[in-house]
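Reminder to self: tokens first, then the designed residues, so the page reads top to bottom the way the pipeline ran.
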């Protein structure tokens, strides 16, 4: 699939996911998404924020967050990771959510309203072109979204750009462990399901290094049975060098 087809398929899939949540139907949760958040974490969050979570991990627990820090969630969906991050950085900090899907942005903003959280801002845009100035963010998080991009090198370069010197990259993502049948990579359903577009671990490391990151670490959290164990959920961590 070309980049335009990938983007349009992703928008349609996750727009429908948001509509299912807001209409009271069961979210079209993919098989990689289950039991990702401790009940104690989600106390006080709107039910729709929890139901709309379609991630593959819990990136809010990957990086220590301090009072007053600025966090950016790439592909923020219904906003659960943004709202959780906002709690941790406190009223003097800020949490941004970035999403290209209008339905998800509307859902996220309603969840923010219901939660009564003020130190949050949801932005419309694409993760390949982040609408924030350089060196403006302390931590970049993301939950099973980078694999959906057709230009992952650009996404990682943009994440590096917006991070402050010493800033942290801490995402959950699907990562490929071995070679796969080309038919899987061409399957639109498996692409929007966070599988077909996954980077091989070595390629992920290489693209992070090319973007300028250091202290790169990929930690497997769950091996999936899809394609004979070719894919895993993983924590991906890296750091922008100090100035």
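Designed residues (243 positions):
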């Amino acid at each position: 699939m070309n980049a335009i087809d990938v983007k349009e398929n992703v928008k349609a899939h996750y727009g429908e996911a948001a509509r299912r949540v807001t209409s009271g139907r069961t979210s079209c949760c993919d098989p990689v998404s289950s039991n990702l958040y401790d009940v104690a974490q989600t106390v006080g969050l709107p039910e729709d924020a929890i139901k709309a979570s379609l991630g593959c991990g819990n990136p809010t627990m990957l990086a220590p967050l301090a009072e007053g820090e600025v966090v950016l969630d790439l592909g923020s969906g219904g906003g659960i990771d943004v709202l959780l991050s906002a709690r941790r950085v406190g009223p003097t900090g800020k949490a941004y959510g970035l999403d290209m899907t209008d339905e998800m942005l509307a859902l996220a903003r309603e969840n923010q309203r219901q939660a009564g959280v003020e130190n949050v801002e949801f932005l419309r845009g694409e993760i390949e072109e982040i609408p924030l100035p350089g060196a403006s963010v302390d931590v970049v998080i993301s939950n099973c979204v980078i694999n959906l991009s057709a230009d992952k090198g650009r996404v990682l370069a943009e994440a590096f750009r917006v991070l402050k010197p010493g800033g942290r990259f801490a995402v959950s993502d699907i990562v490929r462990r071995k070679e796969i049948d080309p038919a899987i990579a061409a399957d639109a359903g498996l692409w929007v399901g966070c599988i077909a577009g996954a980077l091989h671990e070595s390629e992920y490391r290489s693209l992070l290094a090319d973007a300028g990151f250091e202290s790169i670490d990929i930690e497997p959290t769950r091996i999936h049975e899809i394609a004979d164990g070719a894919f895993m959920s993983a924590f991906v961590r890296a750091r922008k060098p100090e100035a």
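The radius of gyration is 17 Å.
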